[in-house]
């Protein structure tokens, strides 16, 4: 039987929105960096090694590298090409991307394009690992609609630590439909990759899966730097927000209460923009958000806060410094992209997510992941309804549920229609304790083996995962 610390470490405090933690870990971390003392970097855009008609070829190497997270100190992290976070891959619908990944780490890795519609051998299945010293080629056909995807490690039992130590990067897919809308672009379209880091005084990145608040509960990082500032012009900006933490939650608000416009989520653009005071992204979720700085005079400082705190962190995420005027030809149309009708469902499946106190394992339908077992056999092109229930009520643990290969539509939460920001295409959803969420999904194009799992990666690493075999 687990002791109290082990139970807490298993995920109690990842519930997140409780105002008072049940227990605080003894901190080994450095004092937080002075907020807004470093400028926010923008991850580099990866350049192709070669181009062929309709195809771009990239080479990436996973390796350890020293980076500066805390000012003046070096931190050794696991990287794609020495970049923390990884370089951004920009792709266009209809153009195939081929990525040759080489593993120069001392641990296995499997690279998953999260949200990607790809053949099973290119999906980064947790058992299809790249051994240290080996390489693997992944092919991404990019036949899906524009969306902010991301790539990260998925090697089973290692994914939580590998992602925490840095193996994550953004993959921005565009298409003509998106480009015609006139949204902010170029230097006014910026990625915000959010995560936490527990850092020692000397800059060492601490990974402790038994920390009662989770390994990434410490200093908030935006694009790899702690609570930075960003100079902006007095005009609209489009922010591609991705929660790349292993289990943290962010509920983002402007401190002055001003509205933001959410235009997209995991699966791409929403049917219409949502004017909101708060944007929520749990582990692996993405949000596409426009902020209009023209309402602020030059010289203003605008603060982005996180209101989902576990205890010990500050609310500070990012400060925008309005430094200049600028022409703005961008717009946010009242209609964005229509949603496809998935058709009537032929099957309903149920999935219960739970934590087993006796073993410390995370379960789906009472079972741990077994790569030799198939948990569901959807038929190609046949819509299904999945009812996903979080059974963890005695120990209130949230879960984020992710399906590989296919995006889905949220039908309802406990029988209530989802909020406007969840009415687009999704590939990851949060299921709160005691909640049942119904989704509609239709697997198309590819048959073969894929997985579904909780994307709080410590849960996934402890076997909260199932396997699909998509049949013709």
> If you compute it from the alpha carbons, what radius of gyration comes out, rounded to the nearest whole angstrom?
21 Å
Strand content: 35-45%
Any low-confidence stretches, pLDDT <50, length ≥5?
A: 1-27
User: Helix segment count?
Assistant: 4
Describe the structure concisely:
The protein is mainly beta. It is built from 4 helices and 30 strands.
Please tell me about this protein's structure.
Monomer. The chain is mostly beta strands. The chain contains four helices and 30 strands. It is globular and about 60 Å long. The N and C termini lie far apart (44 Å).
Quick tags:
Immunoglobulin-like, globular, Cu-oxidase_C, metal-binding, mainly beta, 5-stranded mixed β-sheet, oxidoreductase, EC 1.16.3.4, 472 residues, Cu-oxidase_fam, 3 domains, single chain
What layout of secondary structure does this protein have?
Blueprint: H1 4-9, E1 50-52, E2 55-68, E3 74-80, E4 86-92, E5 96-103, E6 111-114, E7 135-140, E8 147-153, H2 159-164, E9 168-174, H3 176-179, E10 189-197, E11 219-222, E12 225-226, E13 229-234, E14 236-243, E15 250-254, E16 260-265, E17 268-276, E18 279-281, E19 286-292, E20 301-306, E21 316-325, E22 347-356, E23 361-364, E24 384-390, E25 399-403, E26 408-413, E27 428-431, E28 436-441, E29 448-454, H4 457-461, E30 465-470
